[in-house]
């Protein structure tokens, strides 16, 4: 065997891909951006409907909890061997959670003038801060994992709403950015 044949380097050649040399004119650019905008709006609408369903279900669970025997709904799914008493001030905390949920739901309804008059003044950041207090209090008084996890629902739901809204805002900003980088193609 020849040593030169072993050492000889054969460069790997990529298959030449045909390049798209088509330059979009102003109308084609506008149509493309408009198509992206429609797709983005449809995606945003699906995300908002999903969020409304999640927040509404969580709100209903809190309403049921407030008017029941104050047993954590998670206790039915994951029964514990040690009975746990409810968190002190459970009913007022549950009702405040319901108010926070209703505020989130009303904030997600787009431009409904009748709801805008009823809009509560809570910002999502304050709801996130409020949602952290009951689980902390539950840990502080030594409640079970089920009770602590139950009181995390408002925090989880409001955090989910916060991040999905942020993603929606970023997607809208990306569409606006596409609008700004359009170019003018000189015609013949």
Automatic annotation (TrEMBL):
It comes from the Eukaryota. Keywords: Membrane, Transmembrane, Transmembrane helix. The chain crosses the membrane at residues 48-68, 88-109, 121-142, 148-168. This is Uncharacterized protein. It comes from Coniophora puteana (strain RWD-64-598) (Brown rot fungus).
């Amino acid at each position: 065997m020849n040593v030169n044949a072993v050492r000889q380097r054969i460069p790997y050649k990529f298959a030449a891909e045909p390049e798209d040399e088509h330059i979009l004119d102003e109308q084609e650019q506008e149509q493309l951006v408009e198509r992206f905008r429609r797709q983005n709006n449809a995606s945003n609408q699906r995300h908002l409907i999903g969020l409304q369903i999640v927040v509404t279900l969580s709100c209903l669970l809190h309403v049921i909890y407030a008017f029941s025997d104050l047993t954590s709904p998670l206790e039915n799914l994951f029964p514990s061997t040690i009975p746990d008493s409810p968190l002190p001030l459970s009913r007022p905390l549950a009702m405040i959670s319901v108010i926070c949920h209703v505020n989130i739901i009303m904030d997600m309804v787009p431009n409904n003038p009748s709801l805008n008059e009823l809009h509560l003044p809570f910002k999502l950041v304050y709801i996130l801060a409020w949602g952290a207090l009951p689980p902390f209090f539950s840990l502080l008084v030594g409640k079970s994992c089920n009770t602590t996890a139950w009181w995390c629902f408002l925090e989880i739901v409001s955090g989910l709403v916060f991040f999905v809204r942020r993603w929606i805002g970023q997607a809208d900003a990306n569409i606006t950015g596409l609008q700004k980088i359009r170019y003018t193609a000189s015609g013949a």
